[in-house]
Design goal:
Distance between the termini of chain A: 47 Å
CATH architecture of the largest domain in chain B: 3-Layer(aba) Sandwich
Distance between the termini of chain B: 58 Å
Radius of gyration of chain A: 18 Å
Order of helices and strands of chain A: HHEEHEHHEHHEHEHHE
Oligomer: heterodimer
Order of helices and strands of chain B: EHEHEHEHHEHEHEHEHEHEEHEEHEHEH
Number of helices of chain A: 10
CATH architecture of chain A: 3-Layer(aba) Sandwich
Mean pLDDT of chain A: 96
Number of strands of chain B: 15
Strand order of the largest sheet of chain A: 2-1-3-4-6-5-7
CATH topology of chain A: Rossmann fold
Strand content of chain B: 15-25%
CATH class of the largest domain in chain B: Alpha Beta
CATH superfamily of chain A: Thiamin diphosphate (ThDP)-binding fold, Pyr/PP domains
Number of helices of chain B: 14
Largest sheet of chain B: 7 strands, mixed
Largest sheet of chain A: 7 strands, mixed
Mean pLDDT of chain B: 97
Low-confidence stretches of chain B: none
């Protein structure tokens, strides 16, 4: 059977998302970003938001997110994506605005913008890739780095007496009255990917229906920064990251 | 709203002029001496009338990045602050310049450095005219000296910002921000529609229609060869602005033997000093740069030709005086008279400085 015959028979069960273009991704093999990009592209297409979605890229590994998903994008200064999203969403309430940020961008330099966008209940989606490290700049400690984890700036492991405790951002924003949906997901197994997609879709729906701020944290790996194989990174994430950042919904006022 | 004449503060004039211009959004954070801009907008509730968005942000950093977002969407958006707050905005202004986005920023200057004082100052001249943030860029800087100009420069600032796709700044001082004067407010202009924006700003984020490729607003370019080309394009824009947008006011220069160069509220104090000087038989003229960038170099050089000396009067330790010296070189002696820390000089002090610096009484 040729490839064409298989497709014509209606047996095709999977294809590349239409809005995910053919540009070669700059992400390391094993990185979670590619999977989350794919999910975002699929959701925008499935929800018919191609003409209405506006993305805000961060500073960090996902700075080039705009190179991969064929919608309108702005690239924000470090940590300021929620400020851009706030303005665009208020000036264009007919659009669906989302930010796509890492934990360094969002939880450190952008903590004020994050908390205030969430507390104002801006009708936006905030996606945070939490891999507990600054990937782009070469693997330094982020606010979400686990205690004991070795990074370029905690070469002997993070110590809370020196470097403070890992920040549970989703827990913080779940306490704010402006958030309608706060969830923590992962994309390391097919099952987790399906759950993460459902969560992201719900978040985009909330923004479309003006229900408030949706915050989706994706606990992720950074095998280059963690200096582990992709496989070992997934295992380390399950054993260590999930213990500090348990998966599941933290808040859902839309039920 | 029809055109009308009203008595108001400079800060209030900025707010009312923004509504009447048909501005789409204002994002700001309270700081003395400019909080009346945000206060007036919140009291006027323009979202009920023109649909203008007004938002008190969590910081000046957030304000300027909200402006960045709004500008990226092709909207006419603005912020206002005072010196320390404008320092916080510099990174964002650099991003606006690099992404070629139009926006209006108002700085009602107070005395610095640091937290300084809430009294008037002109000590942010270098910051505004020489770049301010990182990288090679300029923004258009308008210096109002009356409450009427506070109102008028909102429209002028927005128009220039959109014409050249660059941020523009109204650089006022605490005097112009706080004093009350008669103002003629223009008729209400309609806000641009989303369809108009899509047509007039083909670069703007509107949501990607089938008819075009995605629009990406970014200042990032890792390929140095392309980044140099981008810089060359910015510099070309700055050259066009320098050629076409120099604005200044010239008073009593025809027979002037001495020239005062001053901007903003200080130019008005100097006018009184010039009046007093002329009563004593000292022929003094005034050039008031209205655009601090682009600076009226040629115009000052032309007037300076037939003068014996130039006094540059500023509320700082000597900033614009450097541009005046660049304009005239060593052809005419240039002196500076400045008060700092929020002190505003009396006309007599200006006249004394002129007479002293050029030995006028001893002639």
């Amino acid at each position: 059977m040729t490839r064409e015959e298989i497709i014509q028979n209606g047996t095709k069960v999977y294809s590349r998302p239409r809005l995910l273009n053919k540009n070669n991704m700059h992400y390391c093999p094993g990185c979670s970003h590619g999977v989350v990009h794919k999910l975002v592209a699929e959701i925008i297409d499935e929800m018919g938001l191609e003409h209405d979605a506006i993305g805000i890229a961060p500073v960090g590994c996902a700075v080039f997110a705009y190179n991969y998903i064929d919608i309108d994008w702005a690239e924000a200064a470090h940590g300021r994506a929620p400020a851009l999203a706030t303005a665009i969403s208020r000036l264009r309430p007919d659009k669906v605005v989302f930010t796509y940020q890492g934990d360094g961008d969002l939880a450190a330099i952008g903590s004020a913008e994050t908390i205030h966008a969430c507390t104002r209940g801006e009708n936006i989606v905030i996606i945070m890739i939490n891999n507990g490290i600054y990937g782009m700049t070469g693997g330094q400690m982020s606010p979400c780095t686990l205690e004991g984890a070795k990074t370029a700036t905690t070469p002997y492991g993070r110590r809370h007496d020196l470097n403070g405790f890992p920040l549970k951002v989703a827990d913080v924003v779940s306490l704010l009255d402006g958030t309608c949906y706060v969830t923590r997901q992962a994309v390391h197994t097919p099952g987790a990917v399906r759950k993460a997609k459902a969560a992201l879709k719900k978040a985009f729906k909330n923004a479309q229906e003006k229900k408030g701020t949706s915050f989706v944290e994706i606990v992720s790996t950074c095998n280059s920064g963690w200096k582990m194989s992709p496989e070992k990174s997934n295992k380390w994430m399950e054993e260590n990251m999930f213990a500090h950042y348990p998966l599941g919904d933290l808040k859902d006022t839309t039920k | 709203m029809k055109a009308e004449v009203k008595l108001m503060k400079g800060n209030e004039a900025i707010a009312r002029a923004a509504i009447r211009y048909g501005a789409d959004g204002y994002f700001g954070y309270p700081i003395t001496p400019q909080s009346e801009v945000l206060e007036t907008l919140e009291a006027e509730m323009p979202w009920e009338t023109t649909g203008m968005v007004v938002l008190q942000a969590e910081s000046e950093v957030a304000s300027i990045n909200m402006v960045y977002g709004g500008a990226a969407a092709g909207k006419a958006v603005m912020t206002s602050s005072s010196s320390p707050g404008v320092s916080l905005m510099q990174e964002g202004i650099s991003y606006l310049a690099a992404s070629e986005l139009p926006a209006l920023i108002v700085n009602v200057m107070r005395g610095g450095p640091g937290l300084g004082t809430i009294q008037p100052s002109q000590a942010d001249y270098f910051q505004a005219t020489k770049g301010g943030g990182h990288g090679d860029y300029h923004i258009i800087v308008l210096a109002p000296s009356t409450v009427q100009e506070m109102a008028d420069f909102v429209a002028l600032g927005f128009d220039l910002a959109f014409k050249y796709r660059t941020p523009a700044m109204i650089m006022a001082d605490g005097v112009v921000g706080q004093m009350m004067e008669k103002v003629v407010l223009p008729e209400q202009r309609p806000r641009r529609t989303n369809e108009q924006i899509a047509r007039e700003c083909p670069w703007a984020l509107t949501g990607k229609p089938d008819s075009r490729k995605p629009n990406i607003i970014t200042s990032l370019e890792l390929d140095s060869a392309i980044m140099e080309k981008n810089n060359e394009r910015f510099q070309e824009t700055y050259r066009r602005i320098q050629e076409n947008e120099v604005r200044y006011e010239e008073r009593f220069t025809d027979d002037a033997e001495y020239l005062i160069v001053a901007f903003g509220s200080v130019a008005r104090i100097c006018l009184k000093a010039i009046e007093d000087a002329r009563k004593k038989g000292i022929k003094v003229g005034l050039i008031r740069p209205i655009t601090l960038w682009p600076f009226p170099y040629k115009e000052i050089a032309r007037v300076a030709e037939h003068t014996k000396g130039i006094l540059c009067v500023e509320l700082n330790a000597g900033q614009m005086v450097e541009d005046v010296r660049l304009a005239v070189g060593d052809k005419v002696p240039v002196r500076h008279f400045g008060r700092m820390g929020g002190i505003v000089p009396a006309p007599q002090e200006v006249l004394d400085a002129l007479e002293h610096d050029f030995h006028i009484n001893s002639l």
